[in-house]
Amino acid sequence: MTTQTARPTAAAGPPPSRRRRRSGRTRAASATRSGVFHLFSATAALLFLAPLIHTALNSLKTPEEANARPPTWFPESLSLANYSALATFGEGIGTYLLNSLVLSGLSVLFTVVACVLAGYGFARFTFRGRNLLFGTTLLILMVPYASLLLPLYIVIGWLGLQNTVVGVALVLTMFQLPFGVFLMRNAFEAIPREIEEAALVDGASSLGALFYISLPLVAPAVATVGLFAFIASWNEFLAPLIFLTGADSHTLPIVLTSIRGGAYGAVDYGALQAGVVLAVVPTLVIYLLLQRYYVAGLTGGALRG
Amino acid sequence: MPRQQHRRGTLTRRPATGWLFVLPAALIVLLLFLLPLGVLIAMSFTDWPLLGGPEPTGLDNYTSIPQNDLFIGAIAFTLLYTALATVLIFGISFVLAAISASPRRGAKFYRTAFFLPYVVGTAAAALIWYAATNPQTGVMERLIQAVGLTDGTFGFLATPDKALWTTLSLVVWKFIGFQVVVLVVGLQSVPPELHEAARVDGANAVQRLRWITLPFLRPTLALLLVLSITGSLLAFDQFYVLTNGGPDRGTVTLVYAVYQTAFTSFDLGRAAALSVVLLLALVAINGLQLFALRRRED
């Protein structure tokens, strides 16, 4: 662990090299090169955006057009009928949206609370078993997610949490711990403890010092941890598939997959793609709004080698 | 994890306070990580139907693995998939990283476009592909016929080979953004003065790439390689949603085989043994990575 987590402000920083004037090249040649660059890059970017744009456009076709054979390239008329059709699947799409939201909300809450407290404890205190616990937490990264879900299914039952959102949220929290604890510990370590000591001398408790003095200073790291927990649990597929088996407790990705599997009769492609839009838009919007924190976590978490 | 020694806290703080702070995380680690890990290993030595109690069976679940066609087939398929996905993602990500790291105007927009699919859930992404490639209403069939590549139905998921390549296109689209962003950060860590100095000394672009950029990127590349391999070995969602493991069980991955053994065949003991094998393989790969990283630091 030689390089520390990038601070959110530094991560999205400016490219370090400015363009340099090259002698011997005419303005026209450089314009040609620039044109080739943008032609190629824009084509590549369009290829990456096309599946999202195509799905959004399809979801706005009329149900008949969305299921037309052969398909039309672009909508001939716009309609929201595919979205209203989603209300008739199973318990209605609202239930599943709410399930996804509750699961993500709980797992963000659990993750942030556990990681902030633990990060602070690891950064500020020495206690017996500290290094062992920190190492064990990081060890979670080594264990393949899928192979733990099976015994977790049993353990969650022992804890009386089978088929509950709280159980799944706790499982998802466990998988977020190594990243979150590591990030929060580094964030707290970057704050000089003298700042807190002044408050402690004035009679504040440890928890008070954490809350009123340090927490505001590590807000960007908290945002990163929460953002990762949200996107991971909103998109999570395997854990809710295994743990949430009640017909009314499915999350959005699971119920969309049931539509594809024909659980509600012949596959309605219009409704399916409308559902995909509902599943995708929240993460896209949140990412575009909080890009800074997301990229900071991504590179800080990934480049810790 | 080698870290420098920490200064001791002030005397007013008792060690027990530290434990109180880490307690929630410690409970989660104990109950939802260490305990299940122990249960997994214990399970693997039993015959455990999903609805019913465990019966100890010794090593049977392990010794029967070589006769388990589903799992053996899954090993071969997962290795093939991992190799192809890693090569494709590495090859293409260099081009996209070069675009994204360019100082030209618009590079940031291109980088965002390449990265956006990464925040799309794998299941949702697989459903986009499913809708686009289905033979009746999918736009890809119409596209490939319009280009003139085929007269009849192409069938993007019709054979195991086609299903594999269709899934690979999905995986490249969905996951490459992560690699591009990490590569860009790696590229930006190269001090520009080095390039400047080399240019003054007469080094051309290829020489600068070989002797300056690549040595700086080596740790990044090693990390990305391990992440790509371990991630691909654990592939599940995209195959479950897009191909359903078919056709002819031709796209069943390791995790898929574990899932089917546990929740379709209801054979938890055997599924646990398969999980342990998978776990050991992954730990070995991660261990190799740590070993390589440590050696470089010396």
- What is the strand tally of chain A? 0
- Indicate the radius of gyration of chain A in whole angstroms: 24 Å
Please tally the helical runs of chain A, counting DSSP H or I stretches of 4 or more residues: 14
CATH class of the domain at 90-302 in chain A: Mainly Alpha
Helical segment count of chain B:
12
The CATH topology of the domain at 90-302 in chain A comes to MetI-like fold
- Note the run of SSEs of chain A as H and E: HHHHHHHHHHHHHH
Helix/strand structural class of chain B: mainly alpha
Shape of chain B: globular
What does this structure look like?
The complex is a heterodimer of chains A (305) and B (298). Chain A is mostly helical and 305 residues long. Chain A has helices at 8-11, 27-59, 63-66, 81-85, 93-124, 130-139, 145-158, 165-189, 194-201, 206-214, 219-235, 238-243, 252-260, 269-302. Chain A has a domain at 90-302: MetI-like fold (Orthogonal Bundle). Chain A contains 14 helices and no strands. Chain A starts with 7 loop residues before the first helix and ends with a helix. Chain B has 12 helices and 2 strands, in the order αββααααααααααα. In chain B, helix 11 (254-263) runs antiparallel to helix 12. Chains A and B meet through helix 2, helix 5, helix 6, helix 7 and helix 8 of A and helix 1, helix 3, helix 4, helix 5 and helix 6 of B.
